[in-house]
Amino acid sequence: MLPFLLWPFIASLILTGIHAYLGVHVVERGVIFVDLALAQIAALGATIAILLGMDVHGQSAYWLSLAFTFIGAGVFAFARARAAHIPQEAFIGIAYAVASAAAILAMSKATGETEHLKDMLVGNILAVDRAEVLKTALLYGVIGLFHYVFRHNFLLISTDPAAAEARGLNLRLWDFLFYASFGFVVTSSVSIAGVLLVFCYLIAPSVGAMLLAEHVGTRLAIGWTMGTLVSALGVCFSVWLDLPTGATIVCTFGAVLLLVFILHLFFYHGRGARPLKGAISARAEDRAYTGKTE
Fold first, then answer.
1. Least CB-packed of 66, 165, 169, 242 within 10 Å?
2. Domains in the chain, please, with CATH?
3. Residue 194, phi-psi category: left (phi > 0), alpha (psi -120 to 50), beta (remainder)
4. Close Cβ partners of 45 (under 8 Å, ≥ 6 residues apart)
5. Within 10 A of 37 (CB to CB), how many other CB atoms are there?
6. Cα–Cα dist 198/208, whole Å
7. Is the Cβ–Cβ distance between 16 and 79 less than 8 Å?
8. Is 32:52 a contact under the CB 8 Å cutoff?
9. Is residue 19 a contact partner of residue 201, using CB atoms and an 8 Å limit?
């Protein structure tokens, strides 16, 4: 591997590690587009920072963007706990649309700085350096440790909210903690890799693992392996074919996921195949929160 690709490749491995784990929860919860919504909310925060005269790459703009993602986290947590008769994905879609429109309105008043915002949304993983990679690794390590310590609570709420509620867990609080920590990851990842690549790191390994395995531990192992291999292949293809690295990795994820789906059809769609356990359905989630009143 060429020397200048070392830190971008390490960055892709770090992104794989945290996003493949979070993706398991996102797929189980059935909130596939929460990553895009929070990313767009963070972009809205960056746009407001530009209007206030802040440096889009500075600490003030980062913390303002993070504050916006915390607001989004609170909305998503409240929506699940209090309005289960409405699919949570509906609130996520509305938040994405409103944040996008608000960002467009704000950008119309800051036309001279829109190129900086475009760089943040598109990302350029080849431009990352040692300092940025180490800072990101430290942040994600802290978030990973937080999720490891409370892994049983997060996993139970993602897979069986009714059982979590029966154990006395505050669903709204733990949902907020999940989305808030998710916001830390998204705000940092998007500036490095862009929205599309971050979305693929979040969803593609988890979906591929879900097609091949049932248990969470096995899914994580498959997701991390898939993300690592795809990152290496994508970076190599981008160099060999002289293509944009981020887009190449995204397309490589699509090709590998197609192969995994073919394997899934071959092994799990036979007459004697066992159905895989997947994400909780909207109906099951609705029963989890409204069962007491039925």
1. 242
2. 17-194+278-293 (1.10.3470.10)
3. left
4. 61, 64, 65, 66, 67, 68, 69
5. 27
6. 16
7. no
8. no
9. yes
How far apart (Å, rounded) are the C-alpha atoms in residues 220 and 226? 10
Residue reference for tokens 């937080």: 146
Give me the amino acid identity at 239: V
Residue (of 153, 262, 257) closest to 206 by Cα position: 257
- The answer to whether 34 and 156 are in contact (CB under 8 A) is no
At position 146, the amino acid (one-letter code) is F
What does the chain come to in residues? Answer: 294
In the numeric block, which tokens belong to residue 184?
Answer: 């830390």
How confident is the prediction along the chain (294 residues), in pLDDT tens digits per residue?
566 678 888 888 888 889 888 888 888 887 778 877 888 888 788 788 878 878 766 778 888 888 888 888 888 877 765 445 667 777 788 888 888 888 888 777 766 655 655 656 556 777 788 888 898 899 999 999 999 999 889 988 888 888 888 888 888 888 889 988 888 888 888 777 777 788 888 888 888 888 887 777 888 888 899 989 998 898 888 888 888 787 888 899 999 999 988 888 877 665 444 555 555 544 444 444 444 444
Predicted TM-score (pTM) of the model is: 0.76
